Amino acid sequence: MSVHVFPQLVIPETLAAGPGPGNTDARVLQRFAAAGVADHMQPDVLRGMVECKHMLRAVWGTDNVHTFGVAGTGWSALDMMFSAVQPGDKVVAFANGTFSGIDALTLRIKAATPAELAANPLDPQAASVTVIEVAHGTSVSGEDVERALAEHKPKWAFMAHWETGSGRINDLAGFSEACERHGVLGLVDAVSSLGVEDFRIDDYPGVAGWASCPQKGICCLPLTYAPVSFDDRYMDSLRATGASTYANHPIFEARHWGIVDGQDVEKGTYHRTHSGYAVAAFHEALRLTLEEGLAKRSQSYIHHEDVLRAAVETMGCTVTSNMTSLVVLNLPPALAGREMELVQHCRAQNFGIWPTLSAPVQVRIGILNQLNPRAISDIVMRFAAAIQDLDGTVDMDAVTDVLDQRYGTAIAAE
Ligand SMILES: *Cc1c(COP(=O)(O)O)cnc(C)c1O
Predict the structure, then answer these.
(1) Which residues does residue 70 pair with via DSSP β-bridges, in sequence order?
(2) Residue 322: pLDDT band with limits 50, 70, 90
(3) Is the per-residue pLDDT at 411 higher than 70?
(4) What is the enclosing helix (H) or strand (E) of 187?
(5) 160 CA closest ligand 1 atom index
(6) Which residues belong to CATH 3.90.1150.10 in the chain?
(7) Does domain 26-290 correspond to CATH entry 3.40.50.300?
(8) What's the CA-to-centroid distance between 74 and ligand 1, angstroms?
(9) pLDDT average, residue stretch 74-78
């Protein structure tokens, strides 16, 4: 039997201008590639993990001891966070887009009784989970949360902080306050907001569990470490009930990060094989974030999103998002209905913008780790060219005026 060896795999350089993954920082890639071959109990790998844990607490503004990385992507961290939810647990979940919709599905899977899961294994209708659907393009408000928690009195409540599917920021303060008022354990999907918005976990005491990802605001590589943080109430609940997982169990996983019996210890103990490459990359991404400072970075996102927004509005697009790392828009009326065609046209030129993944079809343009006038201008010009390629009209002078006015001499100075 002959085995066909395919030619070496070559993956081109693309401009990641979508909701994520972002443009992995060059410094992170360098540390990833420069890591030596070392096993997961080698002292520098273990030291790196402990240092990551401490830096992550600083980035996330928390004294939660159970703050560390989960090997994988956002869904790995979310799966760990939801692991404390037991069959039959009463849950209220707010869904206002693709990702919070999948989070709500995960919660229905976790909270389903064995009979409910067997009745519909991939989409169980768990009677104990109430999903509050909030219209695409709108945000979950504090009043939405207050009303639902008062009515249903669940053990757990869930909300996405930033819903990347529709580009909407949900009311984190309102969510946390409602959870506190009703003695509910809040769970938050912070996959899109960590490293982009300047917020501190410890300012939201109603939220017991947080989950994020490596490759969006943290500028690291996918499949490295997805941040999680759990407060004492979450850990008490988990200790009392257990969780039906080994690999993604918060207590077992924490041990490799040097967290044993709720205490920091000098070095980690074996939980699973960790990657020295991943540790080196994550370590550098956290250093990068702390060196720049979240206050400065979040201001930079606000500034550059505003320029991109103004530029696409000048092209006749309507923006419906309010996240600062992403613009979600409707094309000008003359191109309505051709969103998917435009996105595919851009992607064929290695300009990686995205459509929405659930109805209605809209265009999503992201600026993760693209925080300078040259990069934003490049994105604007490529997008304008794509509209023209589809025979749309763009007033290029007006677009250039927007860039000149907002950036002034900044481009020339670079
Ligand atoms: C990207 C994203 C996810 C999924 O993360 P992966 O890294 O793809 O696993 C979940 N929730 C939100 C809000 C996201 O933006």
Answers:
(1) 226
(2) very high
(3) no
(4) strand 185-189
(5) 13
(6) 294-413
(7) no
(8) 5
(9) 98
> Is there a contact between 407 and 373 (Cβ–Cβ < 8 Å)?
yes
How remote is the CA of residue 160 from the centroid of ligand 1, in Å?
Answer: 10
- Residue range(s) in the chain whose domain bears CATH number 3.40.640.10: 26-290
Tell how far the Cα of 20 is from the centroid of ligand 1, in angstroms: 8
Dist. CA 410 → ligand 1 center (Å): 33
Of 2.60.40.3080, 3.40.190.10, 3.20.20.450, 3.90.1150.10, which CATH number belongs to 294-413?
Answer: 3.90.1150.10
- Does pTM top 0.85 for this prediction? yes
Element housing 270 (H / E)? none
Ligand 1: which of 81, 94, 99 to mutate, most ligand atoms within 8 Å of CB? 99
The count of other CB atoms within 10 Å of the CB of residue 375 is 17
Give the residue, by CA position, lying nearest to ligand 1 atom 5: 74
| Amino acid present at 275 | S
The average pLDDT across 329-349 equals 96
Nearest ligand 1 atom to the CA of 76 is 9
Q: Which residues contact 304 (CB under 8 A, 6 or more apart)?
A: 367, 370, 371, 372, 376
Query: Which SS3 state, helix, strand or coil, does residue 379 take?
Result: helix
Question: Closest Cα to atom 6, ligand 1: which residue?
Answer: 74
Tens of pLDDT, residue by residue over 170-210, are 999 999 999 999 999 999 999 999 999 999 999 999 999 99
Q: Is the CB of 71 under 6 A from ligand 1?
A: no
- In this predicted structure, the answer to whether residue 110 has a pLDDT above a threshold of 70 is yes
Residue 413 has pLDDT above 70, yes or no: no
For ligand 1, the distance from its centroid to the CA atom of residue 224, given in whole angstroms, is 14
pLDDT > 70? residue 113? yes
